[in-house]
Design brief:
Distance between the termini: 32 Å
Shape: globular
Number of strands: 3
Structural class: mainly alpha
Oligomer: single chain
Largest sheet: 3 strands, parallel
């Protein structure tokens, strides 16, 4: 499944925008299906958007499942760095717990 973010939210500027994306991709990943998340047309996002849309996936699936079933395309360095940083943090937290 390909999800182009701007087809579902006007902006990627808030937790609420991220929550909308989470509600679309979460059930798909939870079923073990792949999601391609396209940031086409998005220049930058706040951490609240990434926390709501991607980081919350850890509430419903494992980190391994996120890495296996979620692919990010057409994103910027800023977006990639933010996602990578949050995923790395989750990985560190998971090994500590």
């Amino acid at each position: 499944m390909v999800v182009r973010i701007l087809d579902h939210v006007a902006n990627c500027s808030s937790y609420a925008d991220g929550d909308t994306i989470f509600n679309i991709i979460g059930p798909v990943i939870q079923r073990g299906e792949d999601v391609v998340l396209s940031f086409e047309g998005v220049e930058a996002v706040p951490s609240s958007f990434i926390n709501a849309s991607i980081v919350r996936l850890i509430e419903i699936v494992s980190l391994k499942e996120i890495k296996t079933h979620l692919k990010v395309i057409k994103s910027t360095r800023q977006i990639n760095a933010l996602i990578r940083g949050r995923i790395d943090f989750l990985a560190q937290t998971a090994t500590i717990s």
